[in-house]
Amino acid sequence: MNNKPDGVITELLPLAEGEELREFVQQQADADVSFAVKLSQWLTKQYGAFITESSVYVDEVRRLFGLTESKYRGNNRWRHYDDYGVDWIRLEEGMVQLVVTLREKLQAGMPTVVAAPIVEFYRLLKEHIDDFYAEHEVDINQAAQACDALLLEWAEHPDVPVQEKRALYDTLQVLAKSEIMEYVEGLTDAFFMSYLTRTQSPEEALNTIERLTAEGQVCEELVHKHISLLRQFGRAAEAQAVIRCNLRYRSVLDAELNRLYELHDDYAALNLLDLASAHRCGNADIEERRIRFLLRLNDTQKLIEAYRHIMLNQWNGFDYYPKLKALVPPAEWPEQYKLVVAEGCEKCSMEFMARIYAEEHDYPMLYKAIMATRYNVLQMLQQYMALLPEEYHEKLLQKGYNEIDNEAHRADKRSEYASVVTKIRRFSTLPGAKILADVMVTNLRVAYMRRPAYIDELNKL
Hints:
461 residues; two-stranded antiparallel ribbon; flat
């Protein structure tokens, strides 16, 4: 019997009475949660058309949360303890499959079974928050997003009473304020604003939003809906006030700028950007968004200021150097260059300013920038030394020598020895540096003759 269980099942299963078989299956389901989940899913698929009560699906969610797996603690993944927690992988798979079933029920005209199991899913997430946080790599976003999407479909269904939709909205808000929802990408602000507009009339939605705003429950999506509803009711001045109070949200600022751009209201857009900049709202690229309005107004002086500001205040700002120089008349460039140097020396790194000096062939300033830098000296020498007159070479080579020599004396393991050797090799390729490199290698061989690994690396030169 043990050797061929499948054969026994095939031969004897037809002899089993239906009632006896059902009793045996029920006993197994009561004893084995995993088997119960699989059986529930199979029965739902086979006989789901006869189910009208949501309690069956609520029980299904509870069974999914009853699936457990052994856990481990500490850094040693091979040491297992008698510690069990939710099997989040199987839970997510089961919930995604359950949502498919619930969607079929909704499309078949049975919306009453949809909401309760999804609410139970989020409620149990809240209960199991400790186990959830303990699993550093856990991810159930797919299940959460599937639940969100289905609830939105449910909220749009014409057969669901408005009272039920509103009651569920309040229930979900309570759940969303729990810790678990700060981690799971479900029940987001965007979801609630979409759900709100589906469950309430425009007047009721506006009243709700104004109440939430007064209570301090402000979020990005709520602001967008607030502005939209105010404009819908012809309250444009109030909409503008809401925008001015929420310029810290980039999407709010950008949405209004896009609207003003389509209306060709360039001056209003520039005033809005000035307000955002004065209150330090928006973000670092606020000047970049100003440019498209200045270009349309052909305001050359303001464009010059904007280009210079972006060039000296953004990490990739050097891309604006050629744009700035092309915009400034040649006769005015020397004065503009002085402004760039004065502002850049206060705000920018020596490496950044060196790129500008090199482009301008300002060799004295380029030399000073290299001598003043404390990092990446060797890289700057390789990049710019060939551009500089020979009168600067001796001191530049000495600076490069000192940087590598200091690192060489700090090295105390093979990987650091190898790094030093690589830098010596690069240094020796600079004009006039070969002799200095040889001197450094000789000194290191003498100083560290009792470090075989160091000598081994030096021999690779």
